[in-house]
């Protein structure tokens, strides 16, 4: 018989058969069925947990970014302060229409609109709240995606020139709906013979929008541009020009061209300047959570070592017999490697399925738990978004599955190697 014929190829059918019989064997027969189940369930839950956490954290980042880009300017252009004839700092943009046209002509810019912005107090039905008022033209307001096409809405944006548009949170806090009257009180008062008095005006509510981001829905009010100029006494100009671009993620590349079009007094502020630090913190937290929860998978996979060590001890007689029958050390090692790897592979596959299903139906699960407990699991005042976000990416799922499989394979090698190095004589001495 040749050497090639006496040495079977690696991972032959009989090696899989022996490994499968060992895994199926009951504990009284020297098997590790209970420990194998513990290890499998541990790997499954660890993988599923890591997939769900990664999906929720990535979903939170993406939803938060979409809310920023869908309801705010990608670039805001201000004018630096200038001392007027009365010695007062003036930041108004007198040529706002010309500036908007120059900015809109820059390649990559989709829209540019002048705006008035101010902080006021609003009241209705005996309630009061602080809001941010934005003066904007109707066509420009219709170009804001999450305002023109919000998650929830009431009234008609076509009636904007006859009133104001308010966020769903403002409507809820003040108990006001479509057709109601909202009183705006500006701290920048009017000079009268009796002293400075606050500006007070009433406006009908013609449109209510809910973008799904708590801080926007609760604090934002839109007013027609010319009415805002009159209310805030800024008929001479605009406070800023807000710019939308084709690719917000590469907005830095457009800053030189925008600055050249805006002129020497212009100050540019991008959405990344406003929210970049928060998004970077979310990315860092997601990476750290991946590392921390990987330890959970590692701890669960350590049960595979315990099971294999016991299996090797219980199957010492079988190992001696197999070695005397001609099985090589490599075959013995592969048999026990298959035993441990199968636990890890099956646990990983089940964990991927469970984690993906949980992440996909997480909103339904949230509603079910909240209905059972009678309490909210997601506070939008703290997390800004109105519901738990979840987005599965094949990169994240692949990374989790690959990490779990790698851990399962690596920790299986040592006990499998110890089984292969067992002396058959010592194994059969007391048999």
UniProtKB/TrEMBL annotation:
Segments traversing the membrane: 34-60, 288-312, 333-362, 397-416
Cellular location(s): Cell membrane
Topology of this chain in the membrane: Multi-pass membrane protein
Domain ABC3 transporter permease C-terminal, first and last residues per copy: 291-424
GO BP: lipoprotein localization to outer membrane; lipoprotein transport
Chief location bin: membrane
Keywords from the UniProt entry: Cell membrane, Lipoprotein, Membrane, Transmembrane, Transmembrane helix, Transport
Keyword Membrane: yes
InterPro entries found in the cross-reference section: ABC3_permease_C, Lipoprotein-release_system, LolCE_TM, MacB_PCD
A GO CC term assigned to this protein in UniProt: plasma membrane protein complex
Pfam families: FtsX, MacB_PCD
Residues in MacB-like periplasmic core domain copies: 39-258
Domain of life of the native organism: Bacteria
Family that this chain belongs to: Belongs to the ABC-4 integral membrane protein family. LolC/E subfamily.
Protein name: Lipoprotein-releasing system permease protein
Native species: Amaricoccus macauensis
């Amino acid at each position: 018989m040749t050497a090639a014929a006496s040495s079977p190829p690696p991972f032959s059918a009989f090696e899989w058969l022996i490994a499968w019989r060992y895994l199926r064997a009951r504990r009284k027969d020297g098997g590790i069925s209970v420990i194998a189940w513990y290890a499998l369930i541990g790997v499954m839950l660890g993988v599923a947990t890591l997939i769900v956490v990664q999906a929720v954290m990535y979903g939170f980042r993406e939803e938060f970014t979409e809310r920023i880009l869908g309801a705010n300017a990608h670039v805001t252009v201000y004018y630096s302060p200038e001392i007027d004839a009365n010695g007062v700092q003036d930041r108004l943009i007198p040529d706002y229409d010309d500036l908007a046209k120059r900015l809109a002509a820059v390649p990559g810019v989709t829209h540019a609109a002048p705006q008035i912005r101010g902080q006021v107090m609003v009241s209705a039905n005996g309630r009061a709240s602080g809001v941010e008022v934005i003066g904007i033209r109707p066509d420009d307001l219709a170009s804001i995606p999450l305002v023109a096409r919000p998650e929830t809405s009431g009234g008609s944006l076509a009636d904007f020139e006859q009133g104001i548009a308010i966020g769903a949170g403002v409507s809820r806090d003040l108990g006001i709906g479509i057709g109601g009257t909202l009183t705006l009180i500006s701290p920048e008062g009017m000079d009268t013979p009796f002293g400075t008095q606050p500006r007070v005006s009433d406006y009908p509510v013609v449109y209510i929008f809910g973008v799904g981001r708590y801080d926007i829905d609760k604090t934002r009010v839109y007013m027609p541009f010319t009415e805002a100029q009159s209310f805030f006494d800024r008929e001479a100009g605009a406070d800023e020009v807000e710019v939308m671009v084709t690719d917000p993620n590469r907005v830095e590349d457009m800053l030189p061209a925008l600055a050249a079009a805006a002129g020497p007094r212009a100050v540019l502020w991008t959405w990344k300047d406003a929210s970049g630090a928060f998004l970077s913190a979310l990315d860092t937290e997601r990476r750290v959570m991946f590392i921390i929860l990987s330890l959970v998978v590692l701890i669960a996979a350590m049960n595979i070592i315990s099971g294999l060590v016991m299996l090797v001890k219980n199957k010492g007689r079988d190992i001696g017999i197999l070695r005397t029958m001609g099985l090589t050390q490599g075959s013995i090692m592969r048999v026990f490697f298959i035993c441990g790897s199968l636990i890890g592979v099956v646990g990983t596959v089940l964990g991927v399925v469970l984690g993906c299903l949980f992440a996909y139906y997480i909103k339904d699960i949230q509603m079910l738990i909240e209905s059972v407990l009678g309490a909210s699991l997601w506070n939008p005042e703290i997390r800004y978004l109105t519901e738990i976000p979840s987005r599965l990416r094949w990169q994240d799922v692949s990374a989790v599955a690959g990490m779990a499989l790698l851990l399962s394979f690596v920790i299986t090698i040592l006990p499998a190697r110890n089984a292969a190095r067992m002396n058959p004589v010592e194994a059969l001495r007391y048999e």
